[in-house]
Structures are given as structure tokens and as C-alpha cells.
Amino acid sequence: MSYSSVTFVAxxxxxxxxxxxxxxxxxxxxxxxxxxxxxxxxxxGFMLEALHTHMDKNVPIFGIHRGTIGFLMNKYDENSLFExxxxxxEAVFHPLRMTAVTNVGKSYQALAINEVxxxxxxxxxxxxxxxxxxxxxxxxxxxxxxxVCTPAGSSAYNLSVDGPVLPVGxxxxxxxxxxxxxxxxxxxxxxxxxxxxxFVILNPDKRPVSAVADRDEVRDVVEVTVQEDxxxxxxxxxxxxxxxxxxxxxxQFQP
Length: 255
What we know:
The protein is built from five helices and 17 strands. The chain is of the alpha+beta class.
């Protein structure tokens, strides 16, 4: 595809705002509803925010690193932007849909591009029962929490708690415990992207748990269901020499 019009969005940091001014001066600023591509200036956190904000527009997003962590971003260069965009490789991702039910019976839904996490709210460990596709797979996981991540999110929080890094396009999800106490040696599971994962919180009054889908948190949950939502596709663009699949492979060989 040939890109000829662009909308720039930027994080609030001075670095990102300065880049915004410089790039708009060179390439102009198209209304977001009429642009071929969105260029997001910032770090990975801002890229996730941009993906959530513009999820309904079916417009690809090209991230440029003007923040702290830049795993999802391309390098900063003010030159030849449209040439880079037209040579970029596209990756399409599908978010996770979280449905969380609280201890007072309220139900909430949220989307996650990286992961859905269950996290203990107090000093006491959480106790969680896990079902996959309606079948009980673990009667009791005693832990600080657990998460389900996409391939795009597997190198984020999931990796920091010793979860597996998943290749882009692998059509799998990772289910990873967070500081598992019992069973102590359980390292999680790799599941097909079609899996429906349900977490039931045991003793929720004594051991309260919150559920977090990227930026959305629901506290005092008693049940959380997570599954991929294939009806939503998010498009990201990467420079060919540094595409996301290469980054994920390289991340597994970091010292």
C-alpha cells in the first residue's frame, strides 16, 4: 500500500512533544479521520494507548521511539518518513477480551493488547482455580497472580515473570503464573489462540484479587474469563530491518 497522508500523535514528554513539532513542520498534519497512517511518538506505553484509542479506525500505526522503553517502536529519524512508511512491514494483532465479575455481581469487559493479569490485592497470596475450554485444569493455584498474554505482549510483563516469548503469528497464547507458591514448579501453559480461559477466585473475601487488562483494572473479582477477540484487528508497521518478529526472537537471546 502507498501512504501519502499522516497524523502524528505524541506522548506528553518533552522529547515526544519536540519530535511532534519537528515532524509536523516537515510533513504536515492530516485529520486523524482522513489520514492513511498514524505515527505515534513516545514509548511502548504510549503505543498501547494509541492502539486502544484508534482501534476502531482500521488505520495502521507506525511507532517512533521518543520515550523510555521502545520494544514496539521504530527508531527516530526525521528524514524520508514516507519512504519508510511505504517500505514498512505490517503486523496484525488481535486483542484479548476480558470479562470480569466482581463480588457484588457486576460484570465488566475490557480489551488487552499485551495481557490480562490477575493480581492479589493484599499481603495474602491469591488462590485461583483455572478452567480451559470448560474443563478444570488446576484446582488451586496459590500465587501472587496469573496472566494470559498475546504474542505481542509476551516480551513485556510475561517475560519478566519468566513466561515464554511467543513468535508473532504463532496463533498461541501464554498462561503464566506470577510467583507461584503451590504448585511451586508449575511454569504455566501454552494454549491455542481459540482457548477460553476462566479463572475462579477462591476465598475472595479473605484473599481479594484484581483483574487488569492493559490499562483497565477491576478490583474484587470472583471470576475472570479471557479469550482472543478475532473480530478486532490492529495494524502496526515496522521497518523491515527491525520488524517485531525479529525483535521477539532477539529478546530470547538477551543476557
